[in-house]
Structures are given as C-alpha cells and as structure tokens.
Amino acid sequence: MTVSERAHQLAIVAAQAAADKKAQDIVIIDVGDQLAITDAFLLAAAPNERQVLAIVDAIEEALLDLPEKAKPVRREGERGGRWVLLDYVDVVVHVQHTEEREFYALDRLWKDCPTIPFVDRDLAPAEASAGSGE
Questions:
Q1: What is the C-alpha to C-alpha distance for residues 93 and 91, in angstroms, rounded to an integer?
Q2: Do 38 and 89 form a contact (C-beta atoms < 8 A)?
Q3: Does 132 score more than 50 pLDDT?
Q4: Rounded CA gap, 51 and 21, in Å?
C-alpha cells in the first residue's frame, strides 16, 4: 500500500460519509504508484443528481470536521450534478451519477491498482453476526 496515513484517513472518512448518504459502489483505489499527483481515488455513485450533490456535501462536511480539517483545493462538476470531483491533493473524490459511473468505468481504467478495503460501519455488525451463524 502506497497511500499515506493522511490519505488513508481522508479516504475512509469520505467513504463513510458517502455511505451514510446511501452512495452505491463505493471503492477506494490506491493510485500512488501510478500517479504522482495523488495517493488515492474514492469512487461513489448515486442514482440521481440530487443525491450526488448530497453525497458531495456530506463528504465535505465530514472532512471539515476532522481534527486536521481538510478542504478541497479544487471542486468541479457541481453545476450539472452528474459527476462531481473533489481534489484533496492526497485523495481525489469522484461522485458520479450511476450512468456516468457505468459509462466511464474508472474502476476498470485503474484495475491494475490495489483497492483499499472499506466496510460501511452500519453494515459491519450485520455482516459479522451473519457470518457467526446467528
């Protein structure tokens, strides 16, 4: 894993904020070995523009609430609400409409890069109890 501790923290907090707003297909990709400009990409999808923007707002709020506040240095695509990019230098967040996520398939583009595990905290206890036979 080539991501810095800070990038890992930002990615996990952002992923959880996205999950809390019902984002779909959340993936964190470690692109540090391939790109010099960032350590990780966070990909998330939503079925409509309103939810895309709600997810983006939740991510920004969660990262501002960290002890070491994080603000994006660049924000693109908000007007259309189909694909919003938040650049936190260490992590680049892509929140896409489901159709854009399928069409551009960033997961496939970066398939040779490792992913960083993320489990929604709201699902973790259910998965743990399901796996234990309860």
A1: 6
A2: yes
A3: no
A4: 8
